[in-house]
Design a protein that fits this description.
Elements: E1 24-25, E2 40-44, E3 49-53, E4 58-61, E5 66-71, E6 84-90, E7 97-101, E8 107-109, E9 113-117, E10 120-124, E11 136-141, E12 147-154, E13 167-172, E14 197-203, E15 209-211, E16 220-222, E17 231-240, E18 245-254, E19 259-262, E20 266-271, E21 278-284, E22 302-309, E23 318-323, E24 341-342, E25 348-350, E26 353-355, E27 372-373, E28 405-406, E29 414-416, E30 431-433, H1 458-462, E31 469-471, E32 478-480, E33 541-545
Amino acid sequence: MSNYSDFRDKNTKFTGIVGERISKGTTGERDTSYHSGGGILRFNTTLNLLEYFDGTIWKSIDAPPAVSSISPTGWVSDGSTLQTITISGSNFSVGATVTFVGADNTEYNSASVTRNSITELTATTVASMGVANEPYSVRVTNNSGLSSTLPDALDAGAAPTFNVAAGTLGTLRAGSLAGSNLSRFADAVDADSTQLTFTVTSGSLPSGLSLGTGADAGTITGTAASVSTETTDSFTIQGSDGFNTNSRAYSITRTAPSVQEYTSTGAFNYTIPAGVTGVNVLLVAGGGGSAWIGGGGGGGGIIEAPGYDITPYSGPGTVPGSLGAGGPKAPGSAHNNQGNWDGRGSDTVFGGLTAKGGGSTSGWIYQSGATFNYSPGGSGGGGSGSDQGGEAIQPSQPGFAGNYGKGFPGAAGGNYGPTGYTSNSQTGAGQHSGGGGGGGSSAGGHPNQNGPGDTRTVQAAGRYGGYGYQSNYSGSAITYAGGGAGSSHVSGYNVGTIPGSPGGGGSAPPGGGQNGTTNRGGGAGGGHYSDTNGGIGGPGYVAIVS
């Protein structure tokens, strides 16, 4: 017998706008006896979803969920503390589950999930979720089996920590302005080896300083600008691991320069102030001496070393040093045998730094067998007659990237006709002239050649000493280590005074060469014919700024 349903309403159409009524019931009311082979469609009131039976299982008809964000994004995982996570998104079904997936793909099913709405769930973490397996992805699975995952969303670590309590990170003194002298305020990575980043969220660091990055995160880098009065800069630093943040307020103080000067020749000991690890150092060696009808003495060698590390001496608490004396003038006078002599200035030393004494000069003498020691110096001495000037041997210092040593060679001697000069007995014959001694910023002048842009009379300009070097380490801009002026051999005394470079001695008739300026390390001026002798080099100078 045929079943009426097999042929009734064949090829019928559903019309209207209300929709079709479908059988509904709870999950417990499912019945597959009517069509055990599948093809049953119903609405499940337990799941609030359409479902169908495929002959083996019931399958829900659903749109997938979407996870957009979670809060908080991290918690302290200590093996016992559970954290409730709020999950925001869309299309969360009744009975949705939450799974946390570790970095090694281990799955942790939340034991407590609450559906607050179709757009919000809350779920608790699992005690076994440790920091070693973070970050955790968050997966929401609807009853239909459809799911959505927010990758690497949950951090099991704590908020970044700081190693230094709120307050000062330290005091930077004038000679120790590098950020490396400050305390490291945090580690570069957190407890679970996550890289941290730090930013200044309020206030500002002192000019010249910045926050370190990468392996230097948690430090202050750079070199702060100096100040004339004590200055304190306040700021707030925020640390982040990409999920968690933490902030702390700090300050950095910069002090005005404190200058320790040494002006007496010989040994000294510098006492290191409390908390000082580096100092700015100016060393000026003694200037070179000169001789009768000689070239100018060379200026003392100069070292200007900012941020010189004195920590190797922090045990005894003092740094040894020695202030160089000026070189002597040649012994005897005029036509008397001046003998063998060494007119170089003495070195100035501080810790491992050495400024070389200025070179001395040759002179014009009658006695055979007499020699002058005009070996090279910090700056070289000038030559007399046909003699060459001394070379500069002030070297760069170890431990510095740049050349912190300063010194220039002396000029060779020469002959010149006294055109333009008043002479009692000489009107055109060539005469001996000494070259200028080298200085801290330029070489000495040659009697027959001007320097670039120098419009002075050749003979006058050529015998000028090299220019000195200007430094403000003493607190004022002062020029040190000028070269001494070269001498002249002309009958009569009306050849005019040849002044030295600032700090260097002039060559002034009558009366012989002038001395280099005291505590400027200037080279001495050469002695004119037939004055008694050249001058004495100027003693050196030391300034230590902390």
